[in-house]
Design brief:
Elements lengths: L1 H17 L2 E10 L6 E5 L5 E6 L14 E6 L7 E7 L13 E4 L5 E5 L3 E5 L45 H10 L20
């Protein structure tokens, strides 16, 4: 008799606990509001629009078919929020233990690999916009590209080299060079306009 009454009393509590956390499938998104809205398919015939609680400084708009975990705040099924949304179709796989990645369904990725190596892979372009950009490399920087373009001046405090000599060496050669004069046979004077 005690078992039945206990079950009867605890039945509603157990039902609320079972409905406290739910898995869901994302069917639509709206990222225009302060908190992104996800439309979720939850239990059979249960579709809800819920706020997506994201960590400060990070946001992502999930694709239709992504999966989410929703929680009933205060145990009230009418006040669901999405805690996390993920998409197993595009998740970056085979990371080493401790590695971290940001990724998209298009294959762009920023991966923090072991050995303190950071890799950025963009399928089309990488754009950096800032009044001042500083790159500090204690060993070297390699630009593996057919062309390098600058829309303004290029200035160097040190030597600029083509791999066989320096720009200063080229200046010295040009500024001190002369030619054999065709008519007189003697050398010409050094150029009157030096390379600076």
């Amino acid at each position: 008799m005690v078992g039945r009454e206990t079950t009867k009393l605890l039945g509603p509590v157990w039902r609320r606990l079972r409905l406290l956390i739910s898995r869901a499938v994302v069917t639509r998104t709206d990222s225009a509001k302060g908190l992104q809205i996800l439309q979720l398919d939850l239990l059979r015939d249960e579709t809800r629009e819920v706020e997506h609680m994201e960590p400060y400084g990070f946001t992502a708009r999930p694709l239709q078919g992504a999966e989410a975990v929703a929680a009933a705040v205060g145990g009230a099924r009418g006040h669901l929020v999405a805690l996390v949304a993920t998409d197993r179709r595009y998740r970056k796989r085979n990371l080493a233990k401790g590695e971290v990645a940001l990724y998209t369904d298009e294959g762009d990725e920023l991966v923090f690999n072991r050995g303190r190596i950071v890799r950025l892979n963009a399928g089309s372009a990488v754009e950096v916009t800032a009044p001042l950009v500083t790159i500090t490399a204690s060993t070297s920087i390699t630009l593996d590209t057919p062309d390098v373009f600058a829309t303004g001046n290029i200035k160097a405090n040190g030597q600029v080299s083509d791999g066989t000599g320096s720009m200063q060496g080229m200046r010295d050669t040009y500024n001190g060079h002369d030619h054999d004069e065709n008519d007189s046979g003697g050398p010409t004077e050094a150029p009157n306009q030096e390379m600076s």
